[in-house]
Amino acid sequence: MATGRIGIIDYGMGNLHSAAKALEHVAGGAEVIVSSDPDVIRATDRILLPGVGAIRDCMGEIRRLGFDQLVRESVKEKPVLAICVGIQALMDFSEENEGVDCLGLFPGKVRFFGHSLTDESGEKLKVPHMGWNRVKQSIRHPLWQDIPDNARFYFVHSYYVEAERAEQVAGECTYGVPFAAALYSKNLFAVQFHPEKSQKAGLQLLKNFVYWDGES
Amino acid sequence: MALAKRIIPCLDVDNGRVVKGVKFVEIRDAGDPVEIAKRYDEQGADEITFLDITASHEDRDTMVHVVEEIASQVFIPLTVGGGIRALEDIRRMLNAGADKVTINTAAVNNPELVREAAEKFGSQCIVVAIDAKKVSLPGEPNRWEIFTHGGRKKTGLDAIEWAKKMVNLGAGEILLTSMDRDGTKIGFDLELTRGISDAVTVPVIASGGVGNLEHLAEGVLKGKADAVLAASIIHFGEYTVQEAKDFMTAKGIEMRDLY
């Protein structure tokens, strides 16, 4: 049975209801705490960094509330899962909003899909990348446990992660260009898709996170 | 291996109960929104859309509670439309657990709302609903116009130009309904769907006129829709979402399988 407390970082950027409800759904005995106070989050056993919206506002609020420092500290000692804009916030830099410096926990950039994205047969691809796409698991990881390789997850994003270090890629997706759908490093796991909206596969990933003790 | 096309059950909700208006006039009760959402989730629906057709403002609180309840039990994307007129309405629905909201008449009355909403909440959650009707005469080049108030009010706005404008203002997706086809069961207006889909960079959801599974497949293959809205075809037990997906897969359309 899962125990302890899961802290969801609330930096005011929208809907945390879904993430909180999905975690509660799979959390067993664990308690889910949503807070904008870094001290409250610091006292939890594992941390979820969600993200919705534009990166400049996200980074602004993350820094203003002191969550940049909290995330840097936390990844040294406990499991941290970042979702959607959360993964983008962990990179060095994002092209969005004329360029925004991010937390730099993963080397690499966040890039725009562009206005003339096409698939391999030359068909126009719509941006945002919205809907269910396949994620190829690049490595074995506790967070992929009981999830079939190439399972579909729900994505909605216009910017994608270009990881500098291939050995940090945990999952790959292709939408006109190949991109990192999941990254990992020790206690940190980050995904571009929304597990809280990805039905069975997503709930399984969240459940795996709740039972994960970090490192891999 | 690519992005799957989506099937999105659409439920009309009046004061907390699911109904389906045919041609927006006749209304039939089809049950509890939470139970129906769960059933569609189990059948493999890729998202669910709720249109709140509640007339009175006070009863809108009911919809907020319905959304909260569904979002606690169904873990696929939820879209809510109907009565979204201001940033505050959007915030309430997103906080209740909606992932996207659709803006319809309010976008026509105040296009800036779309820009403000996209800036505030992100384009990914702003769906602009377009109700279009063909206004060109036989023999003339195709032309469709935007109608509001359930198809009763003509605006004079060209549908394709309007869709482009909405995307430029920040709409992340277009929900396109053919008012000529809605409730007819003779299939989507494929020329309209394709016209809009080719004109914009964002995904287009086709709606209005579905009577059989072939129509759903045509919406994607000929209309170039990224997603199809399904209402009465699945609400009254004619087909399940899974049957619709199996049919579309057999037509060569990439769909999400349950596992």
Low-pLDDT stretches of chain B: 21-29
Report how far apart the termini of chain A are.
Answer: 20 Å
Query: Based on the structure, what is the oligomeric state of the protein chains?
Result: heterodimer
List the strand order in the largest sheet of chain A.
2-1-3-4-14-13-12-9
Number of helices of chain A: 6
Bin the strand percentage of chain B.
25-35%
Estimate the mean pLDDT confidence of chain A: 94
- Total helices of chain B: the number is 10
H and E string of chain A: EHEHEHHEHEEEEEEEEEEH
Radius of gyration of chain A: 16 Å
CATH homology superfamily name of chain A: Class I glutamine amidotransferase (GATase) domain
Q: Termini distance of chain B?
A: 17 Å
Main β-sheet description of chain B: 8 strands, parallel, barrel
CATH topology of chain A: Rossmann fold
Describe the 3D structure.
With 216 residues, chain A is of the alpha/beta class. Chain A has helices at residues 17-26, 38-42, 55-64, 67-74, 85-89, 199-210, and strands at 5-9, 31-35, 46-49, 80-83, 93-94, 100-101, 108-112, 129-134, 136-137, 152-157, 159-163, 169-175, 177-185, 188-191. The longest helix of chain A has 12 residues, at 199-210. The mean pLDDT of chain A is 94. In chain B, strand 11 (204-207), helix 8 (213-221) and strand 12 form a beta-alpha-beta unit. Helices cover 36% and strands 26% of the residues of chain B. Chain B has an eight-stranded parallel beta barrel, surrounded by eight helices. Chain B has 259 residues and is of the alpha/beta class. Chain B has helices at residues 33-43, 60-71, 87-96, 105-109, 112-121, 159-169, 190-199, 213-221, 232-235, 241-250; strands at 6-14, 17-22, 26-31, 48-52, 78-81, 100-103, 126-134, 144-148, 153-158, 173-178, 204-207, 227-230. Chain B is globular, with a radius of gyration of 17 Å. The chains are: A alpha/beta (216), B alpha/beta (259). The interface between A and B is large, with 42 and 40 residues.
